[in-house]
């Protein structure tokens, strides 16, 4: 089982990894990936606060250490989360679903 771990704040690498059934550890209590990550499909990383200048989460190194050990020790669970992640990403971000969301938002903008 490969694990995707990055401490940046961009969501696209996480979504791509999830679509490929890879377990993901990423900040999950403040940043962009919260839109598609959950306890059921990934390993949300707690933060220790927010950087004042950037507004980015400050990841908890201790929690990261715990999650990495957990994924290593529970590979079957990590693989199942990867499968769940793929289903969730493909359901939530299927082109037809994205089209619906975009059209709804456009109508909201024009109605304002």
Keywords:
three-stranded parallel beta sheet; flat; 5 strands; single chain; 112 residues; 4 helices
Rounded Rg = 16 Å
| Continuous helix count | 4
Helix fraction, binned, reads 40-55%
- The SSE order reads EHEEEEHHH
Mean pLDDT: 85
User: Which structural class best describes the helix and strand composition?
Assistant: alpha/beta
Largest sheet, if any? Answer: 3 strands, parallel
Shape: flat
Termini separation (Å)? 48 Å
Q: Strand order, main sheet: write it out.
A: 1-2-3
Strand content: 5-15%
Low-confidence stretches: none
Number of strands: 5
Describe this structure in words.
The protein has 112 residues and is an alpha/beta fold. Helices cover 50% and strands 14% of the residues. The chain is built from four helices and five strands; from the N terminus they run βαββββααα. It has helices at residues 12-19, 61-73, 75-92, 95-111, and strands spanning 4-5, 24-27, 43-45, 47-50, 57-59. The chain has a three-stranded parallel β-sheet with strand order 1-2-3, sandwiched between helices. Strands 4-5 form a two-stranded antiparallel sheet. Strand 4 (47-50) and strand 5 (57-59) form a beta hairpin. The longest helix is centred in the C-terminal third of the chain and has 18 residues, at 75-92. The chain is flat. The mean pLDDT is 85.
């Amino acid at each position: 089982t490969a694990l995707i771990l990055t401490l940046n704040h961009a969501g696209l690498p996480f979504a791509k990894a999830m679509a490929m059934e890879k377990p993901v550890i990423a900040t999950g209590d403040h940043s962009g990936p919260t839109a598609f990550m959950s306890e059921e499909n990934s390993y949300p990383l707690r933060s220790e606060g927010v950087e004042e200048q950037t507004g980015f989460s400050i990841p908890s190194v201790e929690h990261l250490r715990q999650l990495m050990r957990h994924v290593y020790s529970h590979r079957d669970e990590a693989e199942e989360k990867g499968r769940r992640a793929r289903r969730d990403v493909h359901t939530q971000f299927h082109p037809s679903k994205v089209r619906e969301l975009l059209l709804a938002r456009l109508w909201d903008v024009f109605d304002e």
